Amino acid sequence: MQYLKTCLFVLFTALSCHSLANTLPTWYWDNLTPSETNIANNPFAALSQDQLYDVATLIRFREKQQNKDYQPSAAHQREITQIKAELKAANIDVDALQQARQRIMEQQANQARQVNPDIVGQTGQIPGFLVPLEMTDSKVTQFLLVPTAGACIHTPPPPPNQIVIVDYPKGFELVSMSTPIMVAGKLAQQSFNQDVQFSDGEGAVEAQYHMQAQHIEVYQP
After folding, report:
1. Number of structural domains found in the chain
2. Which has the least CB within 10 A, 75, 157, 203, 215?
3. Above pLDDT 70, what percent of the chain?
4. pTM of the model
């Protein structure tokens, strides 16, 4: 009788989790960013790819010139002279673009911290990859949910609104950090900014989302 009760409980739990996954909306990573993310008054938007390359080359050259030991080659100087002439002929004000660059970088950093208000406070599921933060034996109880395998470890961290801090006290058996998972739960806005110890060293991580997971399973795309 006890065996039958145990089997029924396991079956009921499995069916409940399957039902939960089927009824919840699935959010992909572009859903975590606000719908309006355009940079206001972006003068770079009007430039061609070749012009963007030339402007970047000239700005890098100017930055290198701040180092008194920098000695550009004759060929590089000729390239810079040609770039200046072409940009001037196209009426492109590099000085103005260089001033706008810092403003745009600040706007981009601010936008990377903005969350999508349409899903904050809602319950849904997100596919992604985990980066362990806390473990009990072989089970992960807290982790970063990120869009790509190895993010934060082998590559720089994604933007803050592309990282979800997930708490799952019951623990999820760690298979591999390259194994995609689906995490279901209520999504909240909660700032996280601290140094985290990874397998390849320590790194600063900033996140803007938190989820108290209700269910986690291996993701089958």
Report:
1. 2
2. 75
3. 85
4. 0.69
